[in-house]
Predict the structure.
Amino acid sequence: MARFANAGKLLQGLKQILPQSKGEWALRLGPEAGFAAIGAFMAPDGTPVSSRLGMAAEDFWIGSASSFLGSGAGLLGGRALYGKNRAKMGEDAYRQKLSQAMTAGDILAAPLPMFAPRPIASGVYEQAMARQSEQDQIAMMQQEQERLLQEALLNSVLTGGGSLLAPGSASLYS
């Protein structure tokens, strides 16, 4: 019986994390899709379209998963921090605090994709490096690391700035 109660809590939390409208889905997943497309476009010359699509799917999944993981962690943290004072602060203020905690969790999770394994991208770059000289290999690895760092930084700015640009953002994930 306890399993079903926990499953109900999990589903309730999932409903709060998932965007509710098409616009919210676009704001949530748009940057991930853009980064995935850029990464696939920047693949080394000679990379087949199928490998580029695989790289894009891999990047999209990793970025989206880290975003939802961060929002979930923020939601849990927000509930722990503000749950005891929910009645005092009122429902609207409580939802606002939860939304802010979810945004903070999403921002804090932005660097996670840099550490995720990327077997498809690794394979593509290994094949390309086999065709390159040692100097070119070092330059390619540095370029990929720089791209991942820029992606994480830009994602942090977009995620944080998105909450400032969206009026009434407290209700985005309520």
In short: The CA atoms of residues 34 and 171 lie 25 Å apart. The chain has a mean pLDDT of 83.
